[in-house]
Design a protein that fits this description.
mainly alpha, 251 residues
Length: 251
Amino acid sequence: MENTLNTIHLKPGRMALILGILAIILVALSLTGQSFRFFTLPFELHTATGEFFLDMFIDEFSVNTESNIPTWFNATLLLLASLATFVIASIKRTARDRYRFEWAILACVFLLLSVDEASMIHEQFSRLFKDAPDVSGWLHYKWLIPGSIVVLLLALTFLRFFLHLESRYKILFLASSALYIFGAFGGELFSGHFANAYGTKHFAYAAMTTGEELLEWLGVILMIFTLLKYIETHFAEIQVRSGPRETQPVK
């Protein structure tokens, strides 16, 4: 059987636009559901079936609820970033590039973040730090403590890798990382402080957590754009070979 080469043409801008539109739609649906929860409904529910579907709509689109559509979307974004980085790492490994291991580690980081988003592993670490002071609610979510340590270690690990990038990719990597970290950590600091003072049964709290999630999504979408642009710029196109591996005849 002959080998077949299939060429994949990347369109980073279009991909980022589509993902960005999906993110905005999910945010709008989440806020709509939360407004139904905390304010008077613009319509009357007369049946238990209507209430069931309303509750399902609110829960399935709430960004502050786990195991629902926004959770799946976030995990998928991180998985796409991981796949794009694995492609770069694979090409770098073939070329024996100096930074091939850093690309591979970065791909694994995105993969672990995707798994964590789907399974909420980081929340379990809060129990290890349950006795730590919450500093007037700023550390209400205790996973921020080990999370901050991990981010610092990763920053030190990838410092040399970051410095070798071209200027445009330095800016894009830094901007996407800053958006994601500010959403994940900065947002949790503020929402934790708010929850400690006023509780979580407020539309304001729901709006804050929705804003956090949007920043995370935009950060990952920008990272996906950056990775695809890097592939487009440095490797022109990706070719996928289908069919059996060619073997050299035995002499």
